[in-house]
Structure formats: structure tokens, C-alpha cells
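[Discussion] Sanity-checking designs against the backbone

I'm trying to build intuition for which residues belong where. Below is a C-alpha cell string of 264 positions. I'd appreciate it if someone posts a full sequence so I can compare it with mine line by line.
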């Protein structure tokens, strides 16, 4: 199946399924996202307390469109965590079942150890085996590929260093959560996205985040020489993403100018 030649940089503000439908098939090399967890977070334009079956049906349709737009061998990195402590919902298992049933290859899972134990009141039964709780200090990055394990590309466009490759291939990633929220309740840390982009894509590839929030995936894609497609339903989040991208581009342009002027 041929890849579609589709070079695109843009922030698309609208419904995720409507905007995904506009993207040509076989045109995206890497999708990275974290969907709303359906736990009542205060998103700008999303109901994060849907009935669970409705929630799964909605996201199943998003995953189908994601598969369609990926090139053969294209990767999908899905950040998710089990929700709740006393009322545990293994949402990550449901997503794995959805994606494997539609033919996506489950490649691996990365444990993102967030190094935070903030909810220290959630002991369950303190100092007793009667009903103790495990407090999750981690999330998963579930990695899938479309049809085949290999992503075609020119080796000269592989920009990951040997040290980075060795470090990132260990699936236990200790990365602190993002502290600069930019008005979003759960933003990605740039380091997490940097690792995924460098490990799973070539320079010049197209990176998609269909729940783009305030634009961290688009920002890191731009910084690492990739194209990006950012989708979010919130006009406010899209404005923040555009502002972050413009600021980063100005800094990169100034850095190039300094190199020309100073000669190093």
C-alpha cells in the first residue's frame, strides 16, 4: 500500500472525528496522544464524565480513523493509565482489546514512572491487609503499529544518537510530570514526547496528536524537524498551542541567525 505524499503543519480546532476524516489515508507516520480519561477532569470543551460504554464506542471510532491515516508500519503511542483506586477501571486493557481487534499490532508497553505520590490519603486500610490500596505512580505508553513492524525511511533521516537509543530502549522511563500546565489539567512533559518522536520516527515525518491540548506534541515535532497535525476541540487550547509554537519558532530562527553572525 503506497504512502500518501502529505506534508502538513497545522493546528486544527474542531471535533476530533471530523478533523481526522480530512486527513488522507496512509499519510501519518507517528500518532501520539493521551485521550481524556473520563474521570471528570476540567477540560475546556469536553465532557469527561461520559457513560463508559459510550466513551469506549467514541474512542473506538477515533482509533479506526487513526489506523486509516497511518502509513504501513506507522506507529501509534497511546498514553493511558488505569483509573481510580477504590473503584479500579482497567481502561488500558479495554484500549488494547479495541486496537488489537481492529488489526493493530501491539508492539510494547512503556512504563512512565512519574515519581509522584501525591494522594497519600488513599491508604485504604492503613497498616492493615484488610483493604489496602496501591497508589499508582506510573502510566503506560502502549505502542502499536499498522500492518507491519517496519517503518520505511531513509537512514540519513534517523536522528537519534547511540546514547539516546540505548537509554530510550529501556522501557522504564523516569520522567517527572509537567509543572507548567498552560491552562490544561494534564499536559505532556516535553521529554516524554521527545523520546517517542526520536525513537519511532524519521526527520521529515508527520506526527499527529488528535487530542492535542496545548500543543506539546506539535511543539516537540517542530523542534525536531518533523511535520505535525494538532487537533483539539478547544479554541482556547488551540490558541495556547499556536502561541507556544510561534514562540519556539522565533527562538529557533534567532539561534540560526546567531550561528550565522558568530560563525559557530
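Best answer:
Here's mine. Compare freely.
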Amino acid at each position: 500500500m503506497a504512502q500518501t505524499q502529505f506534508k502538513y503543519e497545522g493546528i486544527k480546532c474542531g471535533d476530533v472525528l471530523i478533523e481526522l476524516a480530512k486527513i488522507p489515508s496512509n499519510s501519518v507516520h507517528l500518532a501520539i496522544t493521551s485521550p481524556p480519561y473520563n474521570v471528570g477532569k476540567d477540560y475546556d470543551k469536553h465532557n469527561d464524565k461520559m457513560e463508559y460504554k459510550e466513551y469506549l464506542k467514541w474512542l473506538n471510532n477515533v482509533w479506526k480513523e487513526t489506523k486509516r491515516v497511518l502509513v504501513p508500519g506507522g506507529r501509534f503511542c497511546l498514553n493511558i493509565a488505569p483509573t481510580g483506586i477504590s473503584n479500579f477501571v482497567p481502561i488500558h486493557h479495554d484500549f488494547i482489546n479495541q486496537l488489537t481487534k481492529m488489526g493493530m499490532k501491539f508492539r510494547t508497553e512503556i512504563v512512565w514512572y512519574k515519581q509522584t505520590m501525591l494522594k497519600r490519603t488513599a491508604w485504604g486500610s492503613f497498616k492493615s491487609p484488610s483493604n489496602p490500596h496501591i497508589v499508582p505512580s506510573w502510566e503506560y505508553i502502549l505502542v502499536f503499529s499498522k500492518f507491519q513492524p517496519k517503518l520505511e525511511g531513509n537512514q540519513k533521516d534517523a536522528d537519534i544518537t547511540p546514547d539516546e537509543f540505548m537509554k530510550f530502549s529501556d522501557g522504564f522511563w523516569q520522567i517527572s510530570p509537567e509543572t507548567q500546565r498552560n491552562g490544561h489539567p494534564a499536559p505532556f512533559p516535553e521529554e516524554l514526547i521527545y523520546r517517542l518522536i526520536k525513537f519511532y520516527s524519521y526527520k521529515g515525518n508527520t506526527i499527529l496528536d488528535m487530542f492535542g491540548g496545548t500543543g506539546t506534541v506539535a511543539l516537540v515535532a517542530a523542534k525536531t524537524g518533523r511535520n505535525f497535525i494538532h487537533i483539539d476541540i478547544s479554541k482556547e487550547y488551540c490558541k495556547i498551542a499556536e502561541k507556544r509554537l510561534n514562540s519556539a519558532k522565533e527562538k529557533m530562527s534567532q539561534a540560526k541567525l546567531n550561528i550565522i553572525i558568530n560563525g559557530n
